[in-house]
Amino acid sequence: MIPYQIKKDIKVLLLEDNTTDADLIVRHLTKSGLSFSSKTVESRKAFEEALDTFFPDIILSDYSLPAFDAGSAYKIIKDRELNIPFIIISGTIGEENAVMLIKEGVTDYVSKNNFSSLLQKITRGIKEAEELIEKEDLLQKLKTQTAALLIANQELEFQNAETEKRAVELLNANKELLAFNFISSHDLQEPLRKIQIFISIMMEKEMKTMTEDGKNNLNRIHVAATRMRQLIEDLLDFSRVSTVNHQYEMTDLQAIIDDVKSELNDTIHHKKAVFKINGLRPVNIMVFQFRQLIYNLISNSLKFSIPEVPLQITIQSEILKNEEFRALNLPNSPQICDYWNFSFQDNGIGFDAQHNQNIFVIFQRLHHTKDYSGTGIGLAIVKKIVENHKGIIIADGKLNKGVTFNIYIPVIKNAQKIPKNSKQKKQLAVVLNNDLQNA
User: Is 296:375 a contact under the CB 8 Å cutoff?
Assistant: First the structure.
């Protein structure tokens, strides 16, 4: 163990009225090799002034002075809460008085008849004083950190309370949304259906007797009612995808695409649409929502095809390594993982590249309703579905040369193969769902 080394040039305050004894102490410390400066005082006033101006590292005090004594001097140190070692050097104190003072807190006692242990006791006293200062500093830091921790804990409790409050508000909002869905799907659509039925009856039975203005107005009512019904249905679709369903499943998209093509078969045949599907890679998705995404994209291409030009739709997918994905420099892509890239391209009317971003804004339309029907919600739904999958969608439109949509969705590392039976599918859905929530 390395012996403790006193710092150089310590300040020694001598409380001594006998100059000879004071000189003996100074000479002994010098011979001992201690590097120090000293100041000698013999009265209470001089002692207090030295504490304020000399700032001693240690005090060596005679036990009894004519107008002052070691006990009174040490009381001053305690009252001022000073951490200064206090050693009594006396030939008259007696062992009993020395023990009593040490119990009160005096550092130690040395006899004037034997200075041999003085340096050792000075060294020990300064070491203990420094350790005490370190402990007090550590305690103060601990108190400060504890106070900061308490404040942080209170802030965390407040944030948790706010989070719980917002969660309750969100739950209530979702309940209101479900209520709105019910009203929209029943209370709003029911009278609208009746309006459409009566319009159909009038168009079938009353058109012959109507004036041209009447026929025109009835047609306009029919178009407006049809558009209103489509708007309600599209809003319902948007509200459904806004409420995220975390039932993920490892899926092959070919079955979804075939299902959508079957549903849109008449329009596909009318538009003479040709599909080119390449390298579809399985992906972990919310199947119901992704079916809606593919339906909207294909419907969009069918709607905005160029007349008399056979529509060509190219669908493909691939897995991009994280380095490849990062090289694309896409915005809002913080996840460090591989990405599944789904590409959808057509040769329709497209749009100017300046609209690549705002086509995803709800109710945003680039064409008049007279030319192309629709509500401007379809692509907003597509973007919302992609965001529900923590993904990114990029549109690249060219006027009269079609549009390409690229979708990028994070790949779950431990995604498994598609199960063959329904029980395995349910088990895998639970595993993948947990993986996504913990990602």
Answer: no
Best CA proximity match to 119, nearest among 34, 58, 186, 48: 34
How many structural domains comprise the chain? 2
Domain that holds residue 319: 246-438
Are 50 and 13 in contact by the 8 Å Cβ rule? The answer is: yes
Residue 417 belongs to a domain with what CATH number?
A: 3.30.565.10
Q: Distance between CA 394 and CA 357 in Å, rounded? A: 8
The whole-angstrom separation of Cα 109 and Cα 19 is 20
Digit-coded pLDDT (tens) for 35-83:
899 999 999 999 999 999 999 999 999 988 888 888 899 999 999 999 9
Q: Look up residue 130 and give its amino acid.
A: E
Q: Which residues of 149-180 are buried (b: 16+ CB within 10 A; e: fewer)?
A: eeeeeeeeeeeeeeeeeeeeeeeeeeeeeeee
The alpha carbon of residue 310 and the mean position of all alpha carbons in its chain are separated, in whole angstroms, by 49
pLDDT at 30 over 50: yes
Q: Please state the rounded mean pLDDT for residues 141-155.
A: 89
Q: Give me the amino acid identity at 98.
A: A
Spatial separation of the C-alpha atoms in residues 75 and 94, rounded to whole Å: 20
| Of 96, 116, 136, the domain-final residue | 116
The answer to whether residue 141 is domain-embedded is no
Structure tokens at 253: 């998209």
Please check whether residue 180 lies inside any domain of the structure: no
Secondary element (H or E) of residue 175: helix 118-182
Write out the DSSP string of 265-333: HHHHHHHT-EEEEE-PPPEEEEHHHHHHHHHHHHHHHHHTPPTTS--EEEEEEEEEPHHHHHHT--SS-
The CATH number for 56's domain is 3.40.50.2300
Strand partners, 343: 316, 406
Question: What pLDDT score was predicted for residue 257?
Answer: 93
Report whether pLDDT(375) > 70.
no
Cα–Cα distances in angstroms (integers) from residue 141 to residues 84, 131, 148, 156, 234, in the given order = 22, 15, 10, 22, 61
pLDDT band, very low/low/confident/very high, at 242 (cuts 50, 70, 90)? low
Confidence of residue 429 (pLDDT cuts 50, 70, 90): very low
In a domain, 186, yes or no: no
Residue 304 lies in a domain: yes
Last residue of a domain, one of 116, 134, 158: 116
Average pLDDT over residues 225-237: 69
- Report whether pLDDT(9) > 90: no
